[in-house]
Amino acid sequence: MLFYTAKGQEVINMDATLKKPRRKSAPIPNFAKGIVLQAVYFLLGLTLSLGAVFGELAPFGASLSAAVPLKFTGATVAGASVGYIFANPREAFRYVGVLLAIGALKWLLSDIKIIQRSPLYTPLLAFVPMLLTGIALLFVSSSKLSDLTLVIIEAVLSAVGGFFLKKTVELSESTRRLTSLSQSEVTCLTVSACIVIFSFGKVEIFSLSLGRILAVIAVLMLAKYGSATTGSIGGIATGVLFSLSSQDLSFLPGSFALGGLLGSLCAPYGKLCVGVAFVLSSTVLAFSGNDKGLVFSVFTESLLGMGIFMMIPRSIENTLKAYFLPQKRKTVEDYTTQSVVARLKYASEAVEGVTNCITQVSRKLNDTYPLDEEEYIYEAAANRTCKSCGLKSYCYVNQKEVTADDFRRVGKKLKEEGYISEKDIEEIFTKRCAKSHELAESFNMGYRDYMSALSAKNRITQVRSVVAGQFSGLSRMLCDLSEEFESAALIDGETAREITNELYQMGAVVTACCVKIHGTNRMTVDLSIAKSQSRDFSERDLRDAVEKVTGRPFDVGEITYESSLLRLTLSEISPYDIEIGSSQHIAGNGKLCGDSLDYFLTGEGTLVAIISDGMGTGGAAAIDSTMAVTILTKLLKAGLSPDSALSVVNSSLMIKSEEESCATLDLLEANLFTGKVDLHKAGAPVTIIKRGGKILRRERPSLPVGILQEVKFMKDAVTLHEGDAILMVSDGALVGEEAWLLELVNGWRDASCADFASLVVNEAMKRRGDCHDDDITAIAMRLVVNE
Prior knowledge:
Largest sheet: 6 strands, antiparallel
Strand order of the largest sheet: 1-9-18-17-14-15
Number of strands: 18
Distance between the termini: 28 Å
Structural class: alpha+beta
């Protein structure tokens, strides 16, 4: 990143792209994966179409067909059609018609995204065809559907099932772990599982229902690993569904609900107590049913379900606990966190107050004690020469006005030429001076003292401004830290302690561990480990330990070392990834490039790319640009905001040396969770973005760093999606009109980012021709889905 040597080559290619390492050793080919998913949806459609309400209504095959994505609709409709034909041949034509209507509507509305995003889209897609076909069959005598109420009930059940199944399908397509789901999402999964279990209700072995046995197992798991609420809700959901299949099973909602409640209360005493409580309560309530012959069946099914529940391995139990129980997290209102935030804010305000105090005192002192030219030159010359002269009564004492006019004329010539001789004194003075040689020397000495004092004052003023700027930057840093704590939705102290204990058992001494839960339920973990007291750890070792404790997948982090500490920040895997490549050309085939670049991933799931162009070319420009990029990179990796980091970079360049130093800064931040890209420019040229096939120019007039005491980034933002691309360049790439560059970006299709960056640099070199050569830098990026 720092210096790039050409070694006889005109273009330096950085072929390695910054891609986050994939952690799947043997990914399933897309074609094979698609075939497997089609088969799964076919079987699900077949299964759900078997579930019948009131003995003859089967709404859930249509619910699933409405809920699945369009690309899986064909397989789902085919599976559900087979199920309907197999389960109810007489009514199959009606359900097949409903399925075909749902498929046709989904195909017709596939391009209208605003309708598809509506939460009512899937329920209505299942409700309307089911209702209309049912009403139509009311007028057909051969149909068993003769009651409008049943038609409406079936359509409503189809819509409700579609709602829950749609949510479940969306969750199954996400990369989130079960432990990261909210309570409402867990409820959707539970209801969907109950619908699947209900579909096995007609499968009987020796008069024992396989569906009811599976329902018993589900309620027992909810009771043991969830709470009293989840146990009761699970019992009610499964009981209600099975009670709808037959009037003889009307006691099941109360039976399963009571069993779930009592099982939850017995959960602390072990699995056996949970199972016994459920079996006894469900058997007792079975006596309230109309068919006493079902008592033995219910008892046997509960006993079998309890037996299978008892055989669940401990490893699966741990997963179930994480699935059903929400994680306990400490909120940001915790007293310790509040204290840290308050103290950071106070420190930020105090440092900002110091900055204002320095500025005000400096301004007041300059007004009170200005640098007096007359005191340094004229009065000093008079004190050194005139006051000790024996003839002073003829000029300096009795003719002060005349002498003052002579002094001013001498001072004017002195400032023009920088030196006064004895001859100049004789020519300028009205009267002849007896000590013209000594007076000339006094003038020259006073002028030298004045210029030295003036230079020192200017330098002190500059240093004072830089120091004030550093204090202002420090104030912003503290403010950034305070805002970072406040922006975190949750601070999970319990998980931090568990991670610390896990690492301690591995031989690591953790000096600090902070677990933050952001507004999108995204977790980040900041670790600091004492190197001297711990064994050597790789990034993978630490990441595996964190994933083991949290149950969440984390992206690859970067280990940094600070004195005696090892630091690592981990963030959950983001939905997007960035492909990136760069290329450079050194002006005049030199050894040092006046442009510097860097790109890296932060622990917060953000990609940062930087280009800096130093003033001119060669070594001096390379030093300025490299210094700017290096400092900015270190501060951004440490968690500072771009604005705070810019203040430090600007001050550093201003006090680097006596010579003028300046450099442009082009900073890009891409959020890999949302696709939002923030652009920060300080004297930097245009950035070209290709979004949705359209070319966007992003350019903001701004000044480079290192020139003025106050400098600010000019900012812009844009949200990108999969396949969108970005091109960052230094001003050396902009030759004449930029239409060729826009056309080049517009035509970018399959080439890798590194190849495209090289193409841009080579084309810019050709267009320069015989004109002034310059350093050229290009960074090309493309947003891709993180698989």
